[in-house]
Write a structure and sequence with these properties.
Blueprint (H helix, E strand, L loop, with lengths): L7 H29 L11 H26 L11 H15 L10 H4 L2 H22 L5 H25 L1 H6 L11 H13 L4 E7 H6 L3 H5 L7 H15 L10 H12 L4 H20 L2 H5 L2 H23 L7 H26 L2 H9 L3 H20 L8 E3 L3 H10 L3 H9 L3 H9 L2 E3 L2 H17 L3 H9 L3 H5 L5 H4 L8 H18 L5 H19 L5 H4 L2 H20 L9 H14 L6 H5 L7 H12 L3 H21 L3 H7 L6 H11 L13 E7 H16 L1
Antiparallel strand pairs: 1-4, 2-3
Helix pairs in contact: 1-2, 1-16, 2-3, 2-5, 3-5, 3-6, 5-6, 6-15, 11-13, 11-17, 13-22, 15-16, 19-29, 26-27, 26-30, 26-32, 26-33, 27-33, 33-35
Organism: Olea europaea subsp. europaea
Protein name: DUF4220 domain-containing protein
Pfam families: DUF4220 (PF13968), DUF594 (PF04578)
Length: 713
């Protein structure tokens, strides 16, 4: 005797609504994804991203589950409130369409792209399942409508699988390989050389170095007036540099021509806003190529044709279904079918509008020179401009995280719920809890963009060759310090013998102490505070991004925090007439740290067991005070930019790419800007491509005369 755990009434409700509910849930998830997925590249909040993540995971599961339910119930003649077999076969084709997913998201993270083979097998399996459902329902009245939607679903699912395949980092890197180059025809050249020698002609080999010809164009930047870019030109230049520098994601090596081309353009820009806008477009193209279907559609006009075919098939299906007689079908099931049809049409129209107004379409039209496309371009550009104002203006979050060590320690010290901390730590959610409770974001102002751009531009001007560019790329603040002081105690904090995370912690604490101690207004003072807190935010809150340079940061941070807490505990025990609030305690703690006598280095007292740098930072702050106030803040700002640029350029490219799905990071823009200025070690060729050329003595003399004339001009 079997015991039914589930009540019969609940079982009847499930039998009646399981397919209907799953189909409607699948449609709702598609609606959520197409509208919310693009928001994650400009959202910092903890509402949008979890919703997108949940919808992304559930979408495939619900659609596949619904197809399984339909297949299981096909041919079941028991009256359980089941859906009509013909209609359920029709719905199954819609579920295949849903499995194709919206254009706005194919992968939630980079790791999802590596599973393209699984999606390919999923396509085959689900297609077989839908075809099985279709054959089981034959003959039925909606066979033509089912075939039309089935074809549209097959196209969409194939597009998604191809998008995942192209975005897989291995395939992405392979797509960047240059065409095979055998070089000059050696055999032919030797034959000509031998023939000329036999004819007793004065002949000679000369080497034509392409880098010299490129270098001669460097003066064009000096002659350029201020480069002004409109919205169309921003997209054009962003796409141009995306095609060149997308290889940064997979650590691709670039040629000297690509380096010079990028340097000439960005050194010619006078406004930091223009540079950042170009990079915004560039990073948006990277986001689309890695996490959406846009790159697949853009690859050829075939993608656009398939997109219009899908929409036409669904519209034709709607017309056929509306005109078809529908006997013996429950009105509610008819309403669900209309919801699927209208929902599919609306989603496709939205996708088409986004495609037409996208940067990809604009870039494609700009590349074409044919008269028909030029006419299309004239029509679409005004539409694009209108659409730009209707859609979101921001391409990323335009915000930066802030984290302050002293404030964090004081808050942790005052927290009363110690049990909560222990529970959170036990279940492994300590980092997430701290991230949510201590996070703070500020907008990235134009003054900060201008300062970073000008600093890196000045460094790029100094980097005339690969050696100097590599030195600047590897500098962690010592070049900036040496421009203002040669004091050993300051220079040592950013030396090669000091770990990157240690330098950041010392300069963060020193900046914080001096910021609250100084009463004078200084333009660089605020920038120093923002950069200092941002650097600590990156190391503390973004460990996966900064893993290549973080070292033992977590150990050093916790030891420094513990020493700071111990200092505050002793400070609280000091008699005081007033009962200070948290804010006054912060001020008092900072003042006492700055006034504390530090005649002996902490390592000589404590040894190397503790990795705390609290009092080392206090000593650094006192040393910095010996510099003139204006020079001090200027030096500190330049040091912090060097630390930021070092961290940015030494992080892995795929780690930067992953941040594009989380609102973006300022450090990613710094990483890209350094590459555009040619500051890095990712440029393969230094001397350029040398090509041998066979000339006679007369030709050589004429060539030298022409060179002299060009030099004189």
């Amino acid at each position: 005797m079997t015991v039914n755990v589930i009540p019969k009434r609940l079982q009847r409700v499930w039998d009646k609504w399981n397919i209907r509910g799953s189909v409607l849930a699948s449609l709702c998830l598609q609606i959520l994804l197409i509208f919310l997925a693009p928001s994650r590249k400009r959202a910092r909040g903890y509402i949008i991203i979890p919703i997108v993540w949940t919808s992304y995971l559930l979408a495939d599961f619900v659609a596949a589950y619904a197809i399984g339910l339909i297949s299981n119930n096909q041919g079941d003649k028991c009256d359980k409130g089941n859906v009509n077999d013909a209609l359920s076969a029709f719905w199954a084709s819609f579920l295949l369409l849903h499995l194709g997913g919206p254009d706005s998201i194919t992968a939630f993270s980079l790791e999802d792209n590596e599973l393209w083979i699984r999606h390919l097998f999923g396509l085959i399996a689900e297609l077989i399942m839908v075809v099985y459902v279709f054959t089981q329902a034959i003959p039925f009245s909606f066979w033509l409508q089912t075939l039309l939607v089935l074809l549209a679903g097959l196209i969409k699912y194939a597009e998604r699988t191809r998008a995942l395949y192209l975005a897989c980092l291995g395939n992405f890197k392979d797509s960047l390989k240059p065409k095979p180059d055998a070089g000059p025809n050696y055999a032919q050249l030797m034959g000509e050389y031998s023939s000329m020698l036999e004819a007793e002609l004065p002949v000679k080999f000369i080497t034509v170095n392409e880098s010299e010809r490129q270098a001669n164009k460097e003066h064009e930047r000096q002659a350029n007036s201020e480069v002004k870019l409109n919205d169309i030109e921003i997209v054009r230049e962003g796409f141009r540099f995306y095609q060149i520098f997308r290889g940064l994601i997979v650590d691709h090596m670039f040629s000297f021509q690509e380096r010079d081309e990028s340097r000439r353009f960005f050194l010619g820009l006078k406004k930091a806003q223009d540079a950042f806008r170009v990079m915004e477009v560039e990073l948006n193209f990277m986001y689309d190529a890695l996490f959406t279907k846009m790159a697949t559609v853009y690859k050829s006009y075939l993608g656009y044709i398939f997109r219009f075919i899908c929409t036409a098939l669904i519209v034709a299906t709607y017309i056929l279904f509306q005109s078809h007689h529908k006997p013996h079908i429950h009105p509610f099931d008819i309403a669900i079918t209309y919801s699927l049809l209208i929902g599919a049409i609306i989603l496709d129209i939205v996708a088409l509008i986004k495609l037409v107004l996208s940067d990809w379409t604009l870039a494609l039209l700009q590349l074409q020179k044919s008269l028909p496309l030029l006419k299309v371009k004239e029509v679409l550009w005004p539409v694009y401009t209108i659409g730009k104002y209707i859609s979101f203006r921001r391409r990323w979050s335009e915000s930066m995280g802030q984290h302050n060590l002293i404030s964090f320690c004081l808050v942790s010290l005052e927290r009363r719920l110690k049990l909560l901390d222990e529970v959170v730590d036990y279940v492994g959610l300590k980092e997430i809890f701290e991230f949510m409770t201590h996070r703070d974001f500020i907008s990235v102002g134009n003054d900060l963009k201008e300062f970073i751009f000008n600093e890196l531009k000045a460094k790029a001007d100094e980097a005339k060759d690969a050696i100097s560019a590599r030195e600047i790329h590897s500098s962690r603040g010592h070049m900036a310090v040496l421009r203002y002081t040669s004091r050993e105690s300051i220079v040592a904090t950013v030396g090669e013998n000091v770990e990157f995370n240690e330098s950041v912690l010392k300069w963060h604490i020193a900046t914080d102490l001096l910021y609250f101690e100084s009463k004078e207004h200084n333009d660089k003072k605020k920038l120093c505070k923002q950069l200092s807190d941002y650097m600590l935010y990156l190391l503390f809150m973004q460990p996966s991004l900064m893993s290549a340079v973080s070292g033992i940061f977590q150990i050093r941070f916790q030891d420094t925090c513990e020493e700071a807490k111990e200092f505050v505990r002793r400070l609280k025990m000091t008699p005081d007439r007033s009962q200070p609030s948290d804010q006054t305690m912060e001020k008092r703690a900072r003042a006492q740290l700055l006034e504390l006598a530090t005649p002996v280095k902490p390592v000589e007292i404590k040894g190397d067991r503790s990795k705390s740098v609290l009092f080392d930072a206090c000593m650094l702050a006192k040393d910095l005070k010996s510099v003139d106030d204006d020079k001090m803040w200027k030096m500190m700002s330049e040091v912090l930019v060097e630390l930021l640029s070092y961290g940015a350029s030494h992080c892995r490219g795929n780690a930067h790419a992953q941040q594009l799905t989380k609102g973006g990071e300022l450090v990613t823009f710094v990483w890209l800007l350094m590459a555009h200025f040619g500051l890095g070690d990712q440029f393969r060729i230094q001397a350029g491509h040398a090509r041998a050329k066979l000339i006679t003595e007369t030709e050589r003399e004429m060539s030298e005369e022409n060179t002299e004339k060009e030099s004189a001009v």
